[in-house]
């Protein structure tokens, strides 16, 4: 009986030319968004590869100079992109993708595509999947019960002794089959595009597979809510209006309200204010009572004691002392930078928590959060990259200061190193976070999406058992 219901629902959908047109439009928009996304991602990656090569060449060919001067000269590191970026760009267009590494500075990431207006567009595959496909589901399912009741066919069907449970599952599976048939061509093209571009390794494919499962759960939640509306509404028109209103609240209103609420609960300082706070702490300490010179001298004494030179006095040459002072300054500055950036990250995480819990009020928020996480374009991945960049900056500055301390000797600041030192520094290599670590960080959103799925299915099943015949 369930198969009979599926065939009947399928024939009715195929005969409805409006739904075919709407489905074709969604597929075309998805493919167009994918084309733009792939083009933008490939162009950005090509530019980053070229910039990375230039930065490496400039560093290795900078000529002879003092190691600490080379630390001031610095270099650049670049956040990577993957094939998944073409599906959901997330915050990638708004956060910086390039970090400059130099002595005495912990720079925030810069050169986002939104700064030059080249990548701020919100049109993407994710937009189509999470905003437009739910509208397609509503258009396909709003009359599943209500139209049959209005036509009088529901009474006839139930008179055949078919159970309401079988009728419910037949309608639900038919809706699933129709959506799958409409979107399958787009899904195949996405897969072929990823294979053709060669941008999807095993980890990326695994992430995309989990993303596909999450999207299916998200659509199932909207499908279940649509069946609830169709079963309980007085008419098909009322069902359609109600679900479009629900879609607007879930996908437009609540996301905006949650963002505004997160800003009110945990406001962030401007870049200028953050720079002012860091500058003050560099001079007077985090507590405001520790002068920079005193703190650096204390660190130098501790370092000399650790190396057995606490009583060396004039026996320690100028170059060695200068190197120790530079290492001490770096330790002091790093502690200040780490403190303020840790506070900033805590404030951003507080905002993220507000938005994540709002996922229990809107499945769209939960899906959007998981999507950016699995595509590697959320703030968590951005933070992971900048932390590795900062660790590399500390290593680079430390290696150069140690080289100055050990090699300068009596030459002191007149000492100059050459390419043999620059080439000894390890190359920056970014390792993305493990998939389980990403999912654990977004566990609230994952639970929220599952909660909506279970709620929608149970509500749809319950409403089907009590649907009015007339």
What's the arrangement of secondary structure elements?
Blueprint: H1 2-15, H2 17-60, H3 67-73, E1 75-78, E2 98-102, E3 105-106, H4 125-141, H5 146-151, H6 153-158, H7 164-197, H8 202-232, H9 236-265, H10 271-284, H11 292-306, H12 318-357, H13 363-374, H14 379-407, H15 419-422, H16 435-441, H17 443-465
Antiparallel strand pairs: 1-2, 2-3
Beta strand %: under 5%
Give the H and E element order.
HHHEEEHHHHHHHHHHHHHH
Q: Which runs of at least 5 residues are low in confidence (pLDDT < 50)?
A: none
* Mean pLDDT metric: 85
Count of individual domains = 1
Please tally the helical runs, counting DSSP H or I stretches of 4 or more residues: 17
Report on the biggest sheet: 3 strands, antiparallel
**Radius of gyration over C-alpha positions, nearest whole angstrom:** 30 Å
> What's the total count of β strands?
3
N-to-C span: 23 Å
Structural class per helix/strand content?
mainly alpha
Describe it for me?
The chain is mostly helical and 470 residues long. The protein has one domain (2-465). Helix content is 71%, strand content 2%. A three-stranded antiparallel β-sheet has the order 1-2-3.
What key phrases describe this protein's structure?
470 residues; mainly alpha; three-stranded antiparallel sheet; elongated
Brief rundown of the structure:
With 470 residues, the chain is an all-alpha fold. It has helices spanning 2-15, 17-60, 67-73, 125-141, 146-151, 153-158, 164-197, 202-232, 236-265, 271-284, 292-306, 318-357, 363-374, 379-407, 419-422, 435-441, 443-465; strands at 75-78, 98-102, 105-106.
